[in-house]
Each structure stands twice: as C-alpha cells, then as structure tokens.
Amino acid sequence: MAKKTTKKAASSAAATTGVGDTLQIPGINWKEIRLFILGITSLMFNRFPHETLVGIQETLEKGPEEQKKPRAKALPPAMQAFRALYLDDKERVCVPSWHIKAAMGNAVSMLPGNGMGKILSKAKFRGAVHVLGFKIPLASTPYTINSQMVKSGGKSGGRVPAHRPEFALWALPVTIKFDADLFTPEAVVALLARAGSQCGIGSYRINCNGPHGEFRPGAEREYREG
Predict the structure, then answer these.
(1) What angle in degrees, to the nearest 10, is found between the helix axes of 185-198 and 97-108?
(2) Are 94 and 86 contacting, i.e. CB atoms less than 8 angstroms apart?
(3) Sequence-separated (6 or more) residues with CB below 8 Å from residue 28
(4) How many CA within 13 A on the CB side of residue 1?
(5) Grouped pLDDT means (10 residues each) for the chain, 226 residues
(6) Are 142 and 169 in contact (CB under 8 A)?
(7) Is there a contact between 176 and 131 (Cβ–Cβ < 8 Å)?
(8) Is the whole-model pTM more than 0.70?
C-alpha cells in the first residue's frame, strides 16, 4: 500500500510532455513569517458603504427631474462613523489584508536604485508576497469621531462635513507568505517597515498627505503589552 501511495504522489508532481518522458515541476519555496504591526500615528477609516453605492446607482437611473429633488438628510455623526468601519462576520473591527499589501507594494517604488530596488518590480512583488487572511481583527482603544470638512467630490466642488472613526492606539498581527527564493525574512520585515513609515494604511494616511496610519513592525511582547 505504501508503494502505491508513493507512486501516486510522484505522479501528481509531474507533467507529461507528450513524447513519452516526464517533466518534473519544482515547487515554489514558500515561507511564512508572523509579524506584529504597531501604530505610530492614529488610524482612521473611511469605508465606502455599500448602501451609498446602491444609492448612487439608483440616482443615476432616475430621470433629470427626479435627480433635482432634495437629497435625504445626512446621517448623524455617530452613524456615519460606524458605517465607515470594516467589520468581519463576528462584528469585530478589522483591517483588510489588501491594505497592508498595497502599502508594501507602494513602498517597492520607494526602494533605492541600488540593491533590492534595482531587481524588484511591483509585478514581481505582487506574485511573491501575500498577506494572509481577508480581514484582520484590530486590537485598539475605542475609537473617537474625527469630524472634518472635506471635498464633496461632486461637480460643485464644495465641502461637506465628514465623520470618521479614529483609533489613537492600535495594533494587529499579520502573517506574510513569501517566496524565499526572492526574499529573506529580513527583507520582508524591512519592506514592511518602509511601508509603515512612508505609506501607511487607512484614510488620510501619510502617502496621501495626511498624518494618519503610520506604523512599524514590532515584537509580540510589545503587541501583548500594548
């Protein structure tokens, strides 16, 4: 029985070329590293609610006369801030994993021309580095409501009040899967550190001319104590 199992496993890792011989396909040398992100500046969210997208679509489908009618009153600040959160199926506040990967991808373009910046492209990074999980639960203090006047984004170009959740102290654990033939664990940590100090995550983050969302990699002890 053991011999049959071995032959089956070997055949699943091989491809037939069509000329009677077999081509061995080497696997990718994937490794995983568990890191902890510690916030340096406050984190702010501004998720675009699904209900807003539906409302925009319904407005566009209406005739010109219907579109001219007054819009419904804005939601109270507390409700606006709550709707801007990312929540998982357990109603926990989360950070989407793709926000972290996007920050790391943006940091690739900031690498110096010598060393890693000379050989690493964004396309290569996207295929070789993955932040695991879909939504990562956030460890934080309770949020406060950040109220500011922002551009409406409409044709008028006016400003409207926006109420968004802001977390003064925050942290989260991340697991990063990477191609060990292209990256060392030290290179992954260095890239994450650059992403935290030069890009950030969340709304009005540092690479969008804002002060929010700056972070650094930290030790598990710091994460637990914080």
Answers:
(1) 90
(2) yes
(3) 179, 181
(4) 0
(5) 46 51 84 95 85 49 58 80 94 96 91 58 88 95 92 68 94 96 92 96 94 92 69
(6) no
(7) yes
(8) yes
